[in-house]
Amino acid sequence: MSSSGTGVEDVVDSGVAAPPRGTGTRGRAGYVVGLFGLLTLLLLGAAVVLIAQGSIAIPIGEVLRVLTGQDAESAVNRTIVLDARLPKVVAGLLAGAALAVGGAQMQTLFRNPLADPFVLGVSSGAILGAAIVILGTSGVGWLSGLGVVSQLGVTGAAVAGAAGVLLIALGIARRVGDPVVVLVVGVMLGYLAGAVVDMLVYYTDPDRLQALATFTRGSVRNVTWNELQVIAVSCAVVLVLSVFLAQPLNALLLGDRYAGSLGINVRRVHFLSLASVAVLSGITTAYCGAIGFVGLAAPHLARGLLRTADHRVVLPASALIGAVIVLVAEYVAGGNGLTRTSLPLNSVTAFVGAPVILWVLLSGRARRQAR
């Protein structure tokens, strides 16, 4: 990110529209309120349908009775709703919302429409930690004799790997203070972690590869209530912090110098955003795998629907859209009870993310050619 102020045209060229100039009307306010209401209804509807559908279909009325604390007609249905399906729905909702908010922040900080929460390489560190346990602690694995590694577990190792990359990235961010340098370092760390994983795959038992493939493709189906507590805390921190960062991020759209002239501590905003999003991407990857494209696509959809880049409305809209994308993707991937096999969650989210990326690139090119 350049430290010099930039004009509105430069912001639009980067794929991130300039914030509104405060000429809102009743019609505009009504449109925004209506859009948020529609997104909320879509989110609630997707959550209820995902809970109701599965290998054992449960009537929606029964689901609503259980969720509202009323007596269920069947104790089995109550157990399925509360213990089997509700945790994955809440995990998908939180992960989708937080990844989308993190993606919106990264796109603004790096002034790059293709930035997402995983650009810092933290998710690659989580995958590396998981790969070490999955591939190395089998009966014939090269770490099978190290009991402490196997006891750490896949999730614990993923958190440890993410923490290692996080400390390196934030240490550099605090020392250098230039988001572009942090971005390059994050990309390099991601490539380095990926190279180590490839080497582990090459020398490991082929029977262990399926478990690693399942982890890297993302899933919210195996999240428990105990794990959900960790996910909820990390996601809540990012979402709450984003409320306080909305106004500074609006100023950053027009350049660091402009934001600094308004009395904003630009370096602190950079560090807080990077730290919160890095923690988020590491935790979500550790517990849900690498859920791609959500943090990339949801902010662009929010800006397109709202026709503004004002973070005060873009961030909550991104959260709702990201949550809807993950829940709908989980329904398509294997939560509908129509297929016996489950698709990778990443494969489904790519069907949403890839067209959005193409739209951003093509629309940006069209704007430049029109001048």
Description:
This protein has 371 residues and is an all-alpha fold. Helices cover 74% and strands 0% of the residues. α5 runs antiparallel to α6 and α13 packs across α14.
Number of strands: 0
How many alpha or pi helices? 14
What is the overall shape?
globular
What is the rounded distance between the termini? Answer: 24 Å
Spell out the helices and strands N to C. Answer: HHHHHHHHHHHHHH
Mean pLDDT rating = 80
Largest sheet: none
Q: Share of helix among residues?
A: over 70%
Low-confidence stretches: 1-23, 139-151
Strand content: under 5%
User: Structural class of the secondary structure composition?
Assistant: mainly alpha
What is Rg? 21 Å
Can I get a quick summary?
The chain is 74% helix and 0% strand. It is mainly alpha-helical.
Characteristics of this structure?
mainly alpha; 74% helix; 0% strand; 371 residues; globular; single chain; disordered N terminus
